[in-house]
Specification:
With about 300 residues, the protein is α/β, with parallel strands linked by helices. The protein has twelve helices and ten strands.
């Protein structure tokens, strides 16, 4: 596997380096890593100032490489410096290097409006079809521990792309990974489709009695709604793993998808969450407002985004 690893000298790049190093310890997984540092172009400068900027660029690049060099000492790497717009360069270098994966340390913020807007992570996702792994916190997985991985699915083509990526790159997850295929059924949303909420509140006893009966009927329908939602989400995903003889555990949750997946990742102490999403789209539709946004906002578990 070829990995493009952009670094900027931050603690987030260091966290990401540890993730790569830990993955490289897995049997049969020998990645080739291009460690990339992108420096902004020095425009409209006189020659003397450009020379100073060039020297400063070399120092900054070396400082960024030095912070991850020892961590990746047992990994096959090469170092590369490119001048230009960071997101554009990263996307272009991913194509040029024929990368299978981009691994990025991402600052991110908990506030949705600031989570990705203006960040390099979002801009890269908007420009590439190469899967991107986002690392926002220190990686604490123990060496030799069985990897616990969650792939979130909803029956869409994006979920199928995520499942196919896992199967195609199974060596990345270790010899016997604990892979959970997780779907979340939003029962409240499903009920809202069947029972409109824009009806007047009951005022007389007969109306209240009818409303209570209606609610009882809805409560009885919940198990059926949950089962239907799970079946629809898993129907196209299950065959992908079965045909590859790749054992997985199916998990169905109920509630708000983004919240439930983020909580599940924390409580189960997962090593990785994998999600499919639209690729090469405008920034707002790639991330903000999506389930991916909510999971990324948590930031405690590495997130692998598979553009489709």
């Amino acid at each position: 596997m070829k990995i493009l690893f952009p670094v900027d000298g931050s603690e987030y790049s260091v966290h990401a380096a540890h993730v790569i190093a830990r993955r490289a310890e897995l049997q049969n997984f020998n990645p080739e890593v291009c460690v990339l540092n992108v420096q902004k172009a020095a425009e409209l400068m006189i020659p003397a100032l450009k020379l100073r900027r060039s020297a400063a660029t070399n120092r900054q690049s070396e400082a960024a490489f030095k912070k991850v060099r020892d961590i990746l000492k047992n990994v096959k790497t090469k170092e590369k410096v490119v001048i230009g717009n960071p997101a554009q360069v990263i996307a272009e270098e991913a194509d040029r290097e024929k990368a299978d994966l981009i691994v990025m340390g991402s600052r991110g913020l908990s506030d949705f409006a600031k989570l990705f807007l203006g960040s390099v992570s979002t801009a890269v996702l908007a420009r590439t079809t190469v899967p991107v792994m986002l690392i926002r916190s220190e990686y604490t997985s123990e060496p030799g521990k069985e990897l616990k991985v969650c792939v979130a699915v909803d029956g869409s083509p994006y979920s199928e792309a995520a499942a196919r990526y896992i199967v195609a790159h199974r060596e990345m997850f270790g010899e016997k990974p604990d892979v959970r295929v997780v779907t979340v059924v939003d029962v409240a949303e499903a009920i809202a489709y069947e029972y409109p909420t824009d009806v007047p509140l009951p005022e007389i006893p007969a109306e209240r009695e009818a409303a209570e009966k209606n609610m009882d009927e809805i409560q009885q329908l919940i198990p059926e709604i949950e089962e239907k939602g799970k079946k629809e989400a898993m129907s196209t995903i299950r065959p992908i793993f079965e045909q590859a003889n790749f054992p997985v555990t199916e998990v169905a949750l109920t509630g708000d998808p983004g919240t439930e997946i983020a909580n599940y990742a924390k409580t189960e102490k997962l090593d990785l969450v994998i999600m499919g999403t639209r690729g090469r789209d405008n920034v707002a539709s790639v991330i903000l407002g999506s389930v991916t946004s909510r999971v990324a906002a948590d930031g405690s578990v590495p997130l692998l985004v598979i553009p489709a």
